[in-house]
Design goal:
Elements (H helix, E strand, L loop, with lengths): L6 E3 L2 E3 L3 E3 L15 H9 L5 E7 L17 H16 L4 E5 L18 E2 L8 E3 L5 E3 L4 E2 L2 H20 L4 E5 L5 H6 L14 H19 L4 E5 L11 H15 L7 E4 L6 H13 L4 E4 L4 H9 L5 E4 L2 H4 L3 H7 L28
Parallel strand pairs: 3-4, 3-14, 4-5, 5-10, 6-9, 10-11, 11-12, 12-13, 13-14
Antiparallel strand pairs: 1-2, 7-8
Helix pairs in contact: 1-2, 3-5, 5-6, 6-7
């Protein structure tokens, strides 16, 4: 089997091809500072070939969810250091997913003085939990000025630099699932008529600037990208146009030599999605990671068939910190309790034991 073989990721030696996908768990403080149980949680899962730490905002403007971690000041930087240290001490490798929520949030969840931004003043559909008012409809975002866009690009770059200082082995830009870069990509959320709207090239400009700015700060071997073509965030998009856009994006990624490209499957399993994945595999010359309800058998088949180099497992890591060992030995997986996915305590978070217990 190849799934459990070591893998060289841009000079970083991974113990297996199994990756822990980024999982939103919302355990940070109300000031978006990581807490001690997060170090315990990630340290327990260090046997993964690579951990991708949960979506973390590069800006006070990007923390649309309650208790979402951030990395944009000294206090947050210092709080992340014990987390990366315990993962490394336990033999693991860890990237940070840099995630700006953009319009996916509520003003009550943002620090004083922050703004809920989007490419256009179009609210996300649905509702979201808030600190003080229960569930509320998503706030209407402020349409970003050119100066706001420049600032956001700089914040991504600064966050990547802080991540390396905090001990992360690299970063993953979250360009998927309806967050800020994805909002610029989609015509249903981007009504701009300037250099960041309209054509495919323009709608990709914001994401491409983020990629280039982070590479300039920390090097391409430490920068990766997650995208989710045909996910739930793309429901209102023209499928023909969407396919062309993602193929254009991926073709332009090749010379950038990223650490990896991460394709995430969330939402309905539409045929267009997996056809595009095959096209991307043919087009993209770098390391490809796939994520989306994989079993051990399906993951091994994907690698054997050459469909992917790495496979990310998400929700199975919630209740199974020793997932690699469980898969390798065919040990039964523990069921995760959804009631504790987004609470503030260790229960249902860092209190899951290894199989031997």
């Amino acid at each position: 089997m190849k799934l459990f073989n070591s893998f060289n990721l841009s000079g970083l030696e991974l113990s297996s091809r199994i990756v822990m996908a980024p999982l939103t768990r919302r355990r940070a403080t109300n000031n978006n500072v990581p807490v001690n149980i997060m170090a315990e949680y990630y340290g327990q899962r260090a046997s993964a070939g690579l951990i991708i730490a949960e979506g973390t905002s590069p800006s006070p403007n990007g923390v649309g969810y309650c208790n979402m971690p951030a990395l944009c000041n000294k206090e947050q930087l210092n709080a992340w250091k014990p987390i990366t240290k315990i993962v490394h001490d336990n033999g693991g490798k860890i990237f940070l997913q840099v995630m700006h929520a953009g319009r996916v949030g509520h003003m009550n969840n943002l620090p004083s003085g922050a703004k809920l931004f989007g490419p256009s003043a179009i609210a996300q559909l649905g509702d979201v939990a808030t600190y003080n008012f229960g569930r509320q409809k998503y706030s209407v975002p402020v349409s970003m000025s050119l100066a706001d866009i420049d600032n956001a690009v700089a914040e991504f770059a600064n966050c990547s630099l802080l991540a390396v200082e905090a001990g992360f082995d690299g970063i993953e830009i979250h360009g998927a699932h309806g967050y800020l870069p994805n909002q610029f990509i989609n015509q249903s959320s981007n009504f701009r008529t300037d250099a960041y709207g309209g054509s495919r090239y323009n709608r990709l400009r914001f994401l491409n600037r983020i990629i280039d700015s982070t590479i300039a700060k920390i090097g391409s071997n430490k920068v990766s990208l997650r995208i989710s073509p045909f996910s739930y965030a793309d429901l209102n998009e023209n499928p023909i146009e969407l396919r062309k856009l993602y193929l254009e994006l991926v073709a332009n990624l090749n010379p950038k030599k990223l650490a990896y490209l991460h394709l995430s499957h969330m939402g309905e399993a539409v045929s267009e999605k997996f056809v595009l994945w095959k096209e991307i595999r043919t087009l993209y010359s770098g390391v490809l990671m796939l994520c989306g309800d994989y079993t051990k058998e399906k993951a091994e088949l994907a690698i054997q068939n050459g469909d992917a180099d790495l496979i990310a497992f998400g929700r199975d890591y919630i209740a199974n910190p020793d997932l690699v060992e469980r898969l390798k030995n065919n040990w039964k997986l523990r069921e995760r309790d959804k009631a504790f996915w987004y609470t503030n305590s260790a229960k249902g978070y860092s209190d899951y034991k290894d199989y031997s217990y």
